[in-house]
Amino acid sequence: MKNHTQRKKQFYPISSVLREYLRHYKRELFLPVEYENLLQSVDSYPLMNDKNIDTLWQTMVYDQHYGKDIFEGLKQIYVLLRSGGDKKILPNLYVDRVDYCTFGNTKPFRIRIVNQYNDNHDYFYVKKADASRIYGLELEQLLSPNEINFHVDRDTLVEEHIIGVPGDDFIENFLHREDLNEVRLAKEFIKFNERCFVRLLGDMRAYNYVVEMTPDFEQNQYRVRAIDFDQQCYEGRKSFYLPQFFKNNLPVVDLCSRLINVETSHQYQREERTLIKRRFNVAPSRITRLRDSMCKDLISSEENLGRLRSELARMHKDSRFEQCRTMGEITFLNIAVSLDLHDEAPSRFL
To answer: What is the pLDDT of residues 261-301, one digit of tens each?
Structure first.
């Protein structure tokens, strides 16, 4: 059984500045079901996988009349996420299952939606809204090659399901397959490692990311995608933002070390930084507004703040990190220094 135990992270409320940002970019919308509504179950039972092993998720059971209203609201949320609220497809859908996660920090609900005409299913998640997680989701949208869809209503956050093979399952079941393109996977992991560090997304253990595999005319292509954004610039250790240092990623790290020399690894890092740099040019006003909100916000402890700014100051040989007053300032200074984007540093450091 996987060990998902880790120190509980503190939740941080959405500030008025961040909420105004979310409203402006249509991330805040009315949701017919809130997180607290889903807690009102009358029973639950363990969800087992196809090997009859407990997944540590509980399937919730609701009172018949209450559940009917909840399920109708959940269908509306799914339509909002997937088709912009087009209610014409509502009659085609039904809620097959509501699962509750019993481990980790966020204790999310996972909703399984099925199309009754073809039995195709999909998922989305309902979580408690946490400011640091929302910043992580926005930075993923703006700086990564991935689109991500989510909405907030008061203290409830809904997110679409990110498709892919969970990293721990991929390492166990795919890493030694004959059709694995090892070099392409190693290159992608190096680039993923770089994406996480530049924007300070932490805790990318193997079960916090997925691997997408896309058939190409010459073997598969791979994309590593984060699926957990709770640890956006929260921890104080620099190594926490580098997936290569987590023990359960070691098989992939060994693959990278065996196939990619130092010079080529640096080349891939430069390539990824160049791509991130280009993304800044796509939505400069949005990035500026997010930066201004994040630099004012409290999203970590003073202890973590002090340790991270000291470690990054030593690594970058840049004393400006020691002047950072928030994790947002550290994040955007790290982005600016890593990408040589002086105009993107917090304004008081320019």
So the answer is: 999 999 999 999 999 999 988 888 999 999 999 999 999 99
Same domain, 230 and 127: no
Decide if 144 contacts 152 (C-beta within 8 A).
no
Is residue 35 situated within a structural domain? yes
Number of domains within the chain: 2
Quick check: is 9 in a domain?
no
Helix, strand or coil, per DSSP, at residue 99: strand
Asked whether the beta carbons of 304 and 203 are under 8 A apart, the reply is: no
Q: Residue 6: pLDDT above 70?
A: no
3-state helix, strand, coil in the chain (%, to 5): 50, 20, 30
Same domain, 154 and 170: no
For 161-194, the pLDDT digits (tens) are 999 999 999 999 999 999 899 999 999 999 999 9
Same domain, 205 and 338: yes
Residue 298, CA distances (Å) to 13, 285, 307 in order: 9, 22, 16
* Separation of alpha carbons 174 and 19, rounded Å: 41
293-311: pLDDT as tens digits: 999 999 999 999 999 999 9
Alpha helices (runs of H) in the chain, residue ranges in sequence order: 16-24, 35-38, 64-83, 131-143, 167-173, 182-199, 250-259, 262-280, 284-296, 302-316, 327-339
DSSP state of 118: T
Side chain identity at residue 69, one-letter code: D
Owner of token pair 């087009």: 86
CA neighbor of 14 nearest in space, from 97, 120, 102, 138: 138
pTM assigned to the model = 0.92
Domain that holds residue 26: 16-160
Chain centroid to CA 306: 24
Q: Judge residue 175's burial from the number of C-beta atoms within 10 Å of its C-beta, 0-12 exposed, 13-18 middle, 19 or more buried.
A: middle
| Residue 103 forms part of a structural domain | yes
* CA distance linking residue 6 with residue 44, whole number of Å: 24
- The sign of the torsion formed by the CA atoms of 337, 341, 346, 350 equals positive
